[in-house]
Amino acid sequence: MERTESMPAQTRPPGMATADPGSVLLPGHDVPLGRYTTVRRLLPQRQRRMIGAWCFVDHFGPDDVAHRPGMEVPPHPHTGLQTVTWLLDGEILHRDSLGNIQPIRPGQLNVMTSGHGIAHSERSPERHPPVMHGVQLWVALPDPARSGPAAFAHHADLPRWRDGDADVTLLVGELAGQRSPAVVHTPLLGAQVELRGVAPTTLPSRPDFEYGLLALSGAARVDDVPLAPGALLWLGAGRETLTLGGTAGTRLLLLGGTPFEEPLVMWWNFVGRSHEEIVAAREDWTTGRRFGVVADDPAPPLPAPALPGTRLKARDRSGGVHG
Q1: What is d(CA 101, CA 110) in angstroms, rounded to the nearest whole number?
Q2: Within a domain: residue 155?
Q3: Residue 159 belongs to some domain of the structure
Q4: How many domains does the chain have?
Q5: Cα–Cα distance between 236 and 314 in angstroms, integer?
């Protein structure tokens, strides 16, 4: 998925609330994606840039695409990250420069590891379901994975279980004695929790993890903060359990991980450590080096935007500038 804009201005987003020193409500902002899709960008923001190694969160839909093309994102590059794609409704066809052509449907997981460089496209098939709803996330890769080879994995079978009045699907990492088959490179967690009743649900958590909770649908309440669909609640670290409440049918995405301490330079579709790395990646994409050709996609690749007139600065997970 292409990142189409720079960071928002340093302002307090409308509706942002602080429940306590360890949680911040981030409502996100709308960003156009491709020609036909608008997403709610929830990370990065000035107030909170990361949750563990999760450095980018887009929530899209639910959108009526019955008489529309749906998602249309032509070939574009990535470096230094993993993309994690999860659908609640609809279908997207992934194509990449490793030769993979893979449809993804609700309940399945796509994980693409860019390593030193990969290109891909994401499109709704010509005949697609009438509703599209899902998330795409980026995971910052540490050394040496960020300089390693690219890879792609599709997981049709994920750990699923009932916990009290909630159904849990484990996308990434470990939870409640279950482990996802998805390969990641830092301690990380991603799980969908669907509430089946009004009784609160308590999940185990790790005190060394920081957590965030995204409301995908329905009404939820965490830390006495109401959580509306499309909003992300950053929960901080130091917790041994997480208690979630809401109406039956509410679906939540739980994200977590150990704090990622390496400062990052994030620009367009690249995650690096320095201005020079980003310049080199842009030059390689523009000149046709490094990233390869996306399989079975005749559309012209997206051109890289112009670099800003000043040096790109590395920022840490809380937004501090380095270098």
Answers
A1: 11
A2: yes
A3: yes
A4: 1
A5: 22
Residue range of the domain that includes 38: 20-257
**116 is annotated as contributing to ligand binding:** no
CA–CA gap between residue 305 and residue 153 (Å, rounded)? 29
Residue in the block written with tokens 């509306």 = 228
What pLDDT score was predicted for residue 321? 76
Positions in the chain whose pLDDT score sits under 50? 4-21
The string of pLDDT tens digits covering residues 56-68 is 999 999 999 999 9
Over residues 136-164, the pLDDT tens digits come to 999 999 999 999 999 999 999 999 999 98
In a domain, 269, yes or no: no
| 120 belongs to an annotated ligand binding site | yes
Q: Domain holding 100: CATH number? A: 2.60.120.10
Task: With respect to residue 196, please indicate whether it lies within any of the assigned structural domains.
Answer: yes
The answer to whether 5 is annotated as binding is no
Cis, bond preceding 62 (omega within 30 deg of 0): yes
Taking a C-beta distance cutoff of 8 angstroms, is the pair 29, 13 a contact? Answer: yes
